[in-house]
Amino acid sequence: MTAEDTPTPTTGSDDAGGGLRVIVVDDHPLVRTGIRLQLEETDPALHVVATAGDVEEAVAVVAAVPCDVVLLDVHLPGGHGGGGAEVVRRSPGVRFLALSVSDAAEDVVEVIRAGARGYVTKAIDAAGLVEAIRRVASGDAAFSPRLAGFVLDAFGTSWASGAPDDGELDRLSTRELDVMRLIARGYTYRETAGELYISIKTVETHVSAVLRKLQLSNRRELARWAAARRLV
Amino acid sequence: MAGSPPTTVPSPVAAIPSPVPVRPPLVRPAGDRVVAGVAAGLGQHLGVSPWWVRLVLLLLGPLAPGVYLFFVLAVPVSSPDVPVGRARLAPRIGHGQTSRWSRVEVPLLLLALALVFPLTGTLAPDTAGVVAPLVVVLIGAAMAWTQASERLARRSLVRIGLGGLVVAIGLLALTMRGWSTADVLWGVVVAGVVLGGVALTLTPVVLRILRDLTAQRDATSRQAERADIAAHLHDSVLQTLALIRARADEPDVVARLARSQERDLRTWLYEDRPREGTSVAAVIRQLAGEVEDTYGAVIDVVTAGDTTPGPRTEPVCAAAREALVNAAVHGGGHVSLYLEADENTLQAWVRDRGPGFDPDTIPEDRRGVRDSILGRMDRAGGQATIRSPLPTGGTEVHLTQPLTGAS
Asked: Which 8-state DSSP code applies to residue A96?
């Protein structure tokens, strides 16, 4: 367990423009150091308050050290073999942003359905990472183009692609599809808002709704899709 | 997932689909079966519960073994596991093991039973009464003895047991020729009790031994295969790192080498590579990788859905390549590619964040490229749209190609 700083009291953990406490969980020491340096250089208001290197350590650190966002690697050794998804499941009420060098969809689904609020790849630039952290800290979802592509793959790319008796959770609305498609095409939230003539806040709302559906949907295709990915 | 067996391999989506919904192919699943997977396979193919199929088979009465045997011989087994040569290298998160059954020598068993049934009516001492039971005994013995050379597992025990049972039946039929029915039954009961007692005593021990042996042998062989693949992978990474060190003063070359190796390694570690020729997404990724390596760009590829490559998808891939090269050369180096595929349409969007260009005043060298994108898509029956410059900068090329309908 490493507590790097004594966390200074902040004016409110949802203050998206102010100081944020971040915990970094990754099993590669080089990556932990690299992320910390990157964040500190890009946005001095972000403080890395603790780090952890495996599942058990991560669960303990997250429970003991108060923070706003946990940057969590998907592939972690230890625990019961559940990796990052296991950490998320064992730490309810904490905001996780999944970070991984893998952008394979099956890794993403494990962690999102366990409760993570976003997924970014390690190849992301520092500014993008800071933006994603701030998004998750303020209660929204951080979607990378990859995650959007996965959502479209799993839910189908047309509104009519669901079965007639699919519940509300099992399909995306047309607007949500539009937003997902634009994000998959590499548009930022701001650009997406511009394309669709809506506000950024509306984009964030749609994205959060999609995240909720991804987490809660029991859609047969989603489960079978995930199973097929492992088998085929 | 209740009621839907998850082990059928979905057939690859055809580029030109049939007008009716496609059934899953008729295969015998490797898991989730009672005897040889005929009922399970038929159930999946026809869309009914396997128990209905079993009921129908039972109602067929004496014809049932023959019908079952026919299906066992005619219908192949599906194999959902990815061969080790193409499976991802890194361990999966919390993935359980599925037990594997392979072919059961049911045909032999059924053959033996088929021979015994007629014997119940002809216990007179004649040649047929001697030869047939002997054949049955031999078949049973063969069933049991073939297990001696194969990898031991629980199914081996079942086969040995069945083989023993068949031998017992054959021997009983042989020795009790000419006995009265009551004596035959009594003899069978005595034999059964004795054998049952012995088997009951020995079973737990034998099972335990078999299980341990199997587990060890499986683990060892898997490790060996993965070690080979890992060695090759480490070797290629080592070479790349050596190259990078040698050219450390040329940041462009270093970035290119690193990106190329990163892409390669990621594919090996985290993705199951699809079979050749079954995935347009794989073709596009390959293509994007080549453009990355040649022009030093970074291309972010996102795909949703997939379809089989064919004459209609080829122009889209070629046009996408042109668009990617364009974006790499004129677009400042960071490109996003999004591919959307289902059985009716193939769409691609290529976006860069460069200076963009005014579509009305395109410079000479780009005109040819533009025609080759627009013109090519047109000729193929699809459509290409170019938006430039976008409100926030850059260019986006949208390609769309219908995969069904009149060309």
From this structure: E
pTM of the complete model: 0.60
Place of tokens 């890794």: A107
Q: Which stretch of DSSP H or E encloses residue A153?
A: helix A145-155
| Residue the block writes with tokens 């072919």 | B103
Query: Minimal CA–CA distance to A227: which of B86, B1, B38, B407?
Result: B1
Residues of B with Cβ-Cβ distance to A82 under 8 angstroms: 93-94
Pair B333, B297: CB distance under 8 Å: yes
- C-alpha span between B184 and B114 (Å, rounded): 19
Cα→Cα distances B348→B306, B354, B357, Å? 12, 19, 20
Is A148 within 8 Å of chain B by CB? yes
pLDDT (0 to 100) of residue A14: 43
User: Each residue of B259-269: b (16+ CB within 10 Å) or e?
Assistant: bebebebbbbe
Q: For A199-204, which contacts have Cβ atoms below 8 Å and span 24 or more sequence positions?
A: A203/A179, A204/A135, A204/A140, A204/A141
Tokens representing B131? Answer: 């030869």
**Percent of chain B as helix, strand, coil, to the nearest 5:** 55, 10, 35
What's the CA gap between A220 and B374, in Å, rounded? Answer: 40
**Cis upstream peptide for B21 (omega within 30°):** no
| Chain A closest-CA separation from residue B55 CA (Å) | 28
pLDDT at residue B81, rounded to an integer: 60
Task: Using alpha carbons, select from B175, B197, B194, B193 the residue that is nearest to residue B184.
Answer: B175
DSSP state of B40: H
- Helix, coil or strand: residue B351: strand
Nearest to A149 among B1, B271, B303 (CB): B303
The dihedrals phi and psi of B63, each to the nearest 5 degrees, come to: -75, -15
What is the ipTM metric for this complex? 0.73
**Minimal Cα–Cα distance from B80 to chain A, Å?**
6
d(CA B65, CA B78): 22
B290 close to A (CB below 8 A): no
Which among B250, B310, B268, B317 has a CA at the least distance from the CA of B290? B317
B6, B90, B304 ranked by CB distance to A184: nearest: B304
CB-based contact B160:B144 (threshold 8 Å): yes
* CB proximity list for B384: less than 8 A, separation 6 or greater: B319, B373, B374, B376, B377, B378, B397, B398, B399, B400
Q: In this predicted model, what pLDDT tens digit does every residue of B135-187 receive, in sequence order?
A: 677 677 766 665 554 455 566 677 777 777 778 777 877 787 777 888 888 88
Q: What's the pLDDT at B336? A: 93
Strand bridging mode B345-352 / B395-402: antiparallel
Q: Closest by alpha carbon to B310, among B407, B403, B378, B405?
A: B403
Question: How many angstroms separate the CA atoms of B40 and B46, rounded?
Answer: 10
Helix (H, G, I), strand (E, B) or coil at B386: strand
* Residues in chain A within 8 Å Cβ distance of B394: none
